[in-house]
Write a structure and sequence with these properties.
The protein is an alpha/beta fold. It is built from 14 helices and 12 strands. The chain has 2 domains: about 240 residues, Aspartate Aminotransferase, domain 2, CATH 3.40.640; about 130 residues, Aspartate Aminotransferase, domain 1.
Length: about 375
Amino acid sequence: MKPPDHPLRPSTLCIHAGTYLDKPTGGACSPIFTSTACAFPNPANENIYPRYFNTPNQQVIARKLAALEKGKAAVVFSSGMAAISTLLLAHLKPGDHAIFQNDLYGGTMQFITRELTRLGVEVSWGANAADFAAAVRRETRLIYIESPSNPLLHCVDLEAVAALGQRHSVLTVIDNTFATPINQNPLTWGLDAVIHSATKYLNGHSDVNAGVVVASAEIVRRVTASAVDFGGMLDAHACSQLERGLKTLALRVQRHNENALALASYLASHPAVARVNHPGLSTHPDHTLAARQMRGFGGMLSFELRQPDQVDRLLSRLRIVMPALSLGGVESLVCVPSRTSHRTLTPAERQRAGISDGLVRVSVGIEDEQDLQEDFHQALATV
């Protein structure tokens, strides 16, 4: 097949980027390479082994994600937290200082407060680029953000954070899980590394755990060197499932974007709802910023009831939307972050992150838009 003479667009990259072309069969899909024992010596003079993150199926995912995020290289992991923890441990040592956004995913916050600090890494927190700039000191090695954030959907000025990192020679990292590479490409704004929990939108079917780091070749080499020691690799079958999920990413995200904005608008007008967090709403404090740096506003939203003690009643009345952990699948899911994604945090940590006991997070799926609104309408009727 002759390569195109122009850059491919995201929908095409989702399908074709990185595919392993099997010459003997000419198959349209990448084969699954199950072997954990590969010949050596070999023509490439390379030790091929799953824990070395260099098997064909692992490399398919790496090439596809690097293309979608406009990075030079990528490495795939067995979970989002494997990707996050490996990148942080590859770049931080005792005595270093790192700056983190206030409202991150609960698993990330737990790793920071219980592991990084135990290892002697000093930590500061902030809400925006101005806070991060005020926290920078001589020992600062890394700034870590989420935009939009989990679960409050705060957006951070990517260009300002990138400029701050470049000015102080500090690595800038973003968890881009909520946005996906379809809606936002942080590397093009100057950030150094992008992380995804590929369990979520990249796979999109709630049946694979995976994570990805995308960055320059130098950063990925450094992360991979640590990853080989930590062992958080993804096996061939899971890689194949993830590759299949990625092929429909652009289509799915378009529908997620549409459904979430419609549902957010509906909930914002409902008398039982006190507040809705979704960057696509003009009332969202970061709407203008999100509109500048995102191509779509994503499939996530969160909201608070006027009567927070009615949360359990709301969850019990939903018929289509499923109360469950995780997010980013084709089905709509709802959860209470204080009891799920952020339950391991202390009350003080949740308060600092702005997560109340009555906050409800919705991962809006790709069902019919009207069915989703009607489900919330009937569930909220007696709240």
